[in-house]
Amino acid sequence: MKSLWIKKNMKYDGSQLRPLYAYENHRILGPSVISWVGACDVSVDHMVDLEDLIANEEIRGDEMLHFIIEFFDQKLFSAVSLQRLFASIVADQIRLLSKKKLNVQNFIRHGDDLYYLHKGQKRKLSISIAGQSTVSSMIHFALNVVNSGTPVPTCCLKDFGIQPQLLAKSVMSIFQKEYVSIVEATQKARPLS
Fold it and tell me: Smallest Cα–Cα separation from 128: which of 43, 65, 183?
């Protein structure tokens, strides 16, 4: 698995969650995880999560840290499982890198989403979706860098004193190692009789 931090600030509108995006736009061929900072405003045309679409939810924020993960020859179940692993890695790294003392009990992962409980209110930190195309499985995962422009109560990386690029590089490195380790684990077990 390859990774790339993209220095250019780019808005995410959902159109980037398409097969071979990393290869087409950044020359990253094969399984990959890429990351950048930019606004988020997912149009209805590019909304993958039917739950959000049916509820007429808005997916937006003025500045977010985005990740797109792509891998091949796997089912959607694998994508959702890796999505939750990715969310757990992000949560661990936020706890590690935060400049502010976090009450670990208040920082929670629920499915593929991360939240922080602040004064009895659940504040959303992340958005995510996993999907499958004819050639690959993909994940979009994003974290609020700031709280402005979001349609729900949020918390953000700024609240925790975390630089987006530092977090992105750390998370991508750990995820790459986990992915390679998972692939290797599928190649060393003898078949059950």
Answer: 65
